[in-house]
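Table S4 entry, Superoxide dismutase [Cu-Zn].
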Amino acid sequence: MRTALVFRVAVPATLLALAACASTPSSPDSSASSRATGPAVSTAKGATITLMPASGSLVSGKLSAAPIDDGVRITGEIGGLAPGSTHAIHIHGKGDCSAADATSAGGHFNPAQQPHGRVGSGPHHGGDMDNFVADARGVARVDVHALGVSLGGGDTDIGGRAIVVHAMPDDYVTQPAGNAGARVACGVIQLIP
């Protein structure tokens, strides 16, 4: 009689353990994008960003953000750069530019837990965007895209986070931030409802 009771308890426990294993991803390299909550959907019509100097630079600017089909388009003008210089621009996870070197903005915004890379060319952070180039006067007209992010909607929302301009270009390879150098300007993304 005692053997039958042990068998009745052991079988359900074994079945529960097997069921738990079946719901776990089968391989450790499963795509992190499958953990995302679905497509990025914006609920705000736009945002403004006022970039302020960081790390002792003179870099500043005004940017606007607007939703596009597959993410967010960021446009505007940044000045105080070296003539003809190339710079990285990223969305960072925290909307805090209070540190003198803008490290308070944290690392790149990365809701899908992807490696750093070039936007539109395989895996990349939600905050990864293409480099921009300053003109002969040290002014850049910026027109970049962040894919897989939104303005005002869900886990991919960039509202309230920070845009950071870096001293050097992004190499799109070096982890976790593209070897882009010091943070020379920072601004918080302010949503327009």
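The helical segments are 2-22.
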